[in-house]
Amino acid sequence: MSKKNSQKNNSETPRQDAFDAAWEKYRPLVPVDELDALEESLHKPLLQAFRLNPLKTDRNALEEMAQRYSWDLEPIAFCPEGFRVRSAGTPPSMTVEHRMGHYYIQDSASMMPVMLYDTDRLKDAPLVLDLAASPGGKTTHLIGRSLDRGLILANDSSASRIPALKTVLKNWGSVNHAITQFPGESYGDWFPNTFDLILLDAPCSMQSLVSLDSHPMRPITEREEKALAQRQTTLLQSALKALRPGGQIVYSTCTLSPDEDEAVVDAILKTYPGKVHVCDAAERIPWPAPGITSAYGQQFDPAVKGAVRLWPHRYETAGFFACLLQKIDYFENGREHSETRPYRPWEKSSFSIAKASEISDLAIWLKDSFGLTMDDLCRETGTTVMKRGEEFWMLPERFLETFATLPCKSIGMRIAGQSSGGLIPDTDWVCRFFGRTAGNRISVEPDMKREWLNGADIRPDLTGFPKGSIVMVLDENGIFLGCGRVSADRIRNFNK
To answer: Which of 3.30.70.2120, 3.65.10.10, 3.10.450.720, 3.40.190.10 is the CATH number of 343-420?
Structure first.
């Protein structure tokens, strides 16, 4: 495939050079009867895709969105909550529903990893570790599939990537998570045989044959590729140590490099014979997309054929690799605990136990303002209410029971903060439970909606709304936009 006819149709430098090199390298690995289909797919633009948030929306609301924004949607074959956008009057990135976390825009290939787990395991309030979580797309998928039950530790070793992860999980509406920043290589020694499910979406060379803004192709040397493969193997070993026997791991990358894909799985099978099983992905996806058992003179364990190798034409995605592994037995060092596990007494965290009177006042305020019963919400979500300064937070009980001394960057979700005028609710918290709320609501027209979303106070007709009361602002379609306090002639915007 020439530069002129490649999928980017230009002669720009690093991305084009990376594509040309990758094409020459991977073409011999493509089944001969699929080669024409692959070449043809690389001429087509990759369609935008998104995944619904079941904590906030459903298929009925999707139908209304599709009509409202003139979307022509196509279901993604392997992900019931995922959709490709064939055409759109309004781009999915420009809607208020996107802003409020009703769906997550994500390349469809990245929806594959979470779909490989046994469905029942995700629904059974699992203890989950996302070992390289940022920016959080696959973490939100784990939360959505588990309906935010159980607990997810979302870890990333890079400090610069933590803020994006915090923002994504807050917008998604998750309460049962904690964010940590540690080397993923250490978790296996710190927490052996602990987690029910683990996701390792490993750092990789991003040689996907489709260059995305989020995963741009770039030139890569053989030396760098081998270094990545070594780190990926070490991370996967750590993940397996941290997994309880019988638990499942998904190992995935956004590269088509066999050294970073099948070869990594092969190395694990050789290192831990009889203790790790490759689950056959053909039982979980509608059309075959098997892994390869040899490349460049290397022979891999035949079991790696059970992985998923997404050449771009197979599901109209960027190139991708994913493999579901099940831990059969303990490893020899699986019961050892490292002496260097991070430790911070919970008493030195920023959270404290709220007084009974404070909890009672909060419960009354939630009932009066939103019609929500705090005890019911905590019982159903497995959370407890604590204070941080003058703020009330919903924290996952399972974290407090199992990981209370593990330092984290963020945990749970803020309910409200105190101000001179009274409690101010957290918009994302109310949005998460909006479907259960009752109380003061006011719908605004598009012009006033724009003002509100820009952080301005608004002056609608406030007849019937008592001064000082909390009001939920909705758009003309009934979509929750945020909360404010009724003043003499306006609604004071809490989202400033």
So the answer is: 3.10.450.720
